[in-house]
């Protein structure tokens, strides 16, 4: 029997480093899949929980967060360059609406119940960062969800109601209790932590080591992340 690696990934839909980290981890999993079995699960995090339901202008929000338009341009160019190296085509300049991700996380939770969480997470990341989709629009999100095979009626119930709210809020609270203030954040075999969008090479080195020993509690490393406390992303 192959050694088993359970990886919980704390992330937010609007976190660019989470998408970059997703690709890097996937490359490591692909290279290790013949020797290990993997169980991947996404856990919720909100970088901007106070964003209004109708969303807010992405550029205005980020210019205010970074302090100047020059700094904004510098950061999005740097992040887009890193993303391109991982095969991702970010189009941050044309992403106009930043959503409140609470409802999107509830839909990711529903997708998990249907065995389609990974597909839903990938769809949201691609829609937001590469296709500049406005994720505040119910019909748009409904189309994305049904595109991966989720039931339209059930999805609409999530989007216009409160389905999964209690469960989501509990998860968000638990993640805060763990001290997670930046994402992506990886919890491996329940206790071993990796912080930030680490290079594929680090995962290739760390995952086999973790599989061979008892989990430990201290983080193994820290890398690029989106931080709720400093606003740096």
Automatic annotation (TrEMBL):
Q: Where is the DSBA-like thioredoxin domain?
A: 7-207
Pfam family of the protein (one): DSBA
Top-rank taxon: Bacteria
What GO annotations for molecular function exist for this entry?
Answer: oxidoreductase activity
Q: Which SUPFAM superfamilies match?
A: Thioredoxin-like (SSF52833)
Q: What name goes with this protein?
A: DsbA family oxidoreductase
Upper lineage is: Bacteria, Pseudomonadati, Bacteroidota, Cytophagia, Cytophagales
């Amino acid at each position: 029997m192959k050694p088993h690696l359970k990886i919980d990934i704390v992330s937010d839909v609007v976190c660019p480093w989470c998408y970059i980290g997703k690709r890097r981890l996937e490359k490591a999993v692909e290279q290790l899949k013949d020797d290990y079995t993997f169980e991947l699960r996404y856990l919720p995090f909100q970088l901007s929980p106070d964003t209004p339901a109708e969303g807010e202008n992405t550029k205005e929000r980020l210019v205010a967060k970074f302090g100047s338009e020059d700094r904004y341009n510098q950061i999005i160019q740097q992040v887009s360059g890193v993303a391109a190296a991982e095969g991702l085509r970010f189009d941050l300049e044309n992403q106009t609406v930043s959503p409140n991700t609470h409802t999107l996380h509830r839909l990711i939770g529903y997708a998990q119940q249907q065995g389609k969480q990974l597909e839903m997470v990938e769809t949201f990341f691609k829609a937001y960062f590469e296709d500049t989709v406005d994720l505040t629009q119910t019909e748009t999100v409904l189309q994305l969800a049904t595109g991966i095979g989720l039931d339209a009626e059930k999805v609409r119930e999530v989007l216009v109601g409160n389905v999964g709210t209690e469960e989501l809020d509990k998860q968000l609270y638990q993640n805060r209790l763990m001290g997670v203030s930046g994402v992506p954040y990886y919890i491996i075999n329940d206790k071993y932590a990796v912080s930030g969008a680490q290079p594929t090479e680090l995962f290739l080195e760390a995952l086999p080591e973790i599989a061979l020993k008892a989990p430990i509690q201290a983080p193994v490393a820290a890398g690029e992340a989106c931080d709720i406390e400093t606003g740096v992303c």
